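Working notes for the structural subgroup meeting. M.R. asked for a predicted model of this chain before we commit to crystallization trials. I am recording the input and output together here so anyone reviewing the notebook later can reproduce the run.

Input as submitted:
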Amino acid sequence: MTEAPAPGGGRTPPPGSPLCSRPARIGAAELGGERVVIAVATTADTIDGTSGTGGARGSGSALAQALAAAAGGADLVELRLDLLSPPRAASPQAQAAFWHEAILLVAAALAPTGTPLLATARSRREGGGAAMDPREQAEALEALIDLQAEHRAGRAIADALDIELSTGALPALAERAHQEGIAVVASNHDFTATPPDGEMLDRLERMEASGADCAKIAVMPRSEEDVDRALQVAARARASLSIPVAVISMGERGRRSRLEGWRYGSALTFATLSADPAAASAPGQPTIAALLPLSHRDRSKTRAKPGGFPQADGC
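Returned structure, recorded in token form:
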């Protein structure tokens, strides 16, 4: 494939890496650098073990899982806000307040490890647990950003926020997040099929045009050809967009896209700490041990500093 000129007259990214002309910094992690960034998501339904069941898709609390991910070498921890047991009949504002407190707790715990935090409230229409329509979700995310802004000066907050393209409010939410120094990972998920190449590219381009710092899509393959198409879309998007991209083919069939996607330009991939499929936040995620050789992170920083929070074996 012929490499496209970098947008804005910048450097032309070489093939075989996620390197792009406008990398995104999320805390200590650089998306769009020479190596892929590895994220590990929480799956528990309780933030600190004081309520909930520990999550049908994982064990322990979200706080313990986040600390274990940091100690295990994750470049980025994704706090799945949507999987936490929410207040009953919560309004978007009440939901935002609940999410905000969870972020403050996990961000403070991760601060001594240097591991950045991506906050995600995945909607049910895109495979998550947040029972909100696009308007409600946009209202909750806007309220969440406002709450995070109030605490920015004195306490650790989320380094990045996942915003679904389907909210219809990505431009406004991205602008608001950037005002508070919060990076934006725009996302779109299709758990039923792999759309046509042009449609996948269009979604990524719309994310960039809407102000996202990273554009991510995850699709479900029905054949090996679908996986190949997703990888080629990653390569085409990396060549034509200036921001980092992540194109993931889900399920067991798509697992190789998580292991090899960086060769096609995907800047971000997701892993689990355990080989147990129940620990995954999405189907087909490999273990972090399988992905660590691809990561750029200095492994000497994966342990908490003296006086910090517990390491993985203490969680």
